[in-house]
Amino acid sequence: MTYLLFVLGLVALFFGGELLVRGATAVARHFRLSPMLIGLTIVGFGTSAPEMLVSVQAALAGQPAIAIGNVLGSNIANILLILGISSVIAPLVIPVKKLWRDLGFMLLATAVIWIMLLDGAVMRLDGVLLIAGLVVFLVTAFLTSKVEDIEVGQGDVVQWKAWAMTLGGLIVLVVGARLLVNSSTELARAFGISEAVIGLTIVAVGTSLPELATSLIAAIRKQTEIAVGNIVGSNIFNIFAILGVTALIDPIPADPRFASVDMVWVSASALGLSILAFALGGLPRIAGVALLLAYGGYVVLI
């Protein structure tokens, strides 16, 4: 039964990802918004819904190792694993002129949470500051976004269908991720794997599967702005919103290893993506291979 749930979850993820990319692209065209903005907000935040659910539930259940490990592990997996796989399948172009501000927000969010974890806990006041950071990011993103000169053609999806596809895709992604996380966690516990490692790997990768499905499909459909914006927006949302909301519910004590080990990888992956974006203007296949090798090294380390 566990294996069946795993397969059903996988199918739901890729079906939901296809719906989400098609719907979000149609919404962007209708409102003449850039695919990058849609990727950073609707797609990026929407695909982070599983991380939000898992982290809040973990906090309420008194399991902070899974709550924090889920977010940090997801941010590592988003860049090293998901962008790695996506760029190996289809090299990604990163429009630095459009994304430099958002890469800066991602680096800022990473630095802020690292400083908070050095104290050994993310307190309620920290949660307020993180939520404030999210509000500043959203306001800045929409105020500085430019209307795209896009010609709306007869072949475009009708708007109510586009919104239905977008919302339906998000719901299917959340359900699929939940099925995969539950089944994978049961299998891992059967093999005696600790909760901290489960949070950093299986749960983190499991809740990042919507991002994987969405970015892969976007890359295949040549919607590279959505593929990259999805990951950057998701990483920002994971820190500002998920850890912010979780800390407001209940202060989160943090194991020292999060600040001394895992944050090094979170910061290195975020900084590495930014350097590649500015130096190469994207992620060629060789960069994707390097990202995948780095993720393999991280998994072996923990």
TrEMBL record:
Say yes or no: keyword Transmembrane helix present: yes
Spell out where the chain crosses the membrane.
33-54, 66-93, 99-118, 125-143, 163-181, 226-249, 261-280
Q: Which UniProt keywords apply?
A: Membrane, Transmembrane, Transmembrane helix
GO MF = calcium channel activity; calcium, potassium:sodium antiporter activity
> Which NCBIfam families does this one have?
calcium/sodium antiporter
What PANTHER family does the annotation carry?
INNER MEMBRANE PROTEIN YRBG, SODIUM/POTASSIUM/CALCIUM EXCHANGER
Protein name per UniProt: Calcium/sodium antiporter
Source organism per entry reads Paracoccus liaowanqingii
